[in-house]
Amino acid sequence: MHVDEKEGARVLVCTVGKTVLHYDARCIDDLYAMLQSVGDWVELGGADEQKPAKEGTVEAWGRSAANPVGGWYGLKKGLRGRFGVYIPPLMEELGLCELEHNAKNNRMRAK
Fold first, then answer.
1. Separation between Cα atoms, residue 28 and residue 88, nearest integer Å
2. What digits encode the pLDDT tens for the residues 32-86?
3. Which residues contact 37 (CB under 8 A, 6 or more apart)?
4. Which long-range contacts (CB under 8 A, 24 or more apart) does 48-51 make?
5. From CA 34, how far away is CA 45, in angstroms rounded?
6. Is 56 helix (H, G, I), strand (E, B) or coil?
7. Where are the domains of the chain?
């Protein structure tokens, strides 16, 4: 995963095998602020764009009209989902959150 610029905006580029996903780079600061405001664990709930996201999860927030960008942080139509899968490990690596590493139903919270 790395930061790049596309059409004058900073984007996170996430390469998974041959698939390349793009997310608005401000998602890191915005998600961190949301986690701080919640003050507790939030379920990740990763889901593909075509599947509904479980309410109250990081995935649902990453596509909600109520988040700071007013919708999807994912930028490539058809590949906008999986926000709750790929962004939390990056935030853990950056030291911004604690992240569970269970087989299923993982959660995160701000540090």
1. 9
2. 999 999 999 999 999 999 999 999 999 999 999 999 999 999 999 999 999 999 9
3. none
4. 48/81, 48/82, 49/74, 49/78, 49/79, 49/80, 49/81, 49/82, 50/81, 51/81
5. 16
6. coil
7. 2-110
Q: Strand, helix or coil at 12?
A: strand
Name the pTM for this structure: 0.94
| Residues 56, 58: Cα–Cα separation, whole Å | 7
Tokens 């927030």 correspond to what residue?
Answer: 61
Length of the chain (residues)? 111
Tokens of 67: 């988040």
CA angle 55, 65, 87 (to 5 degrees): 65
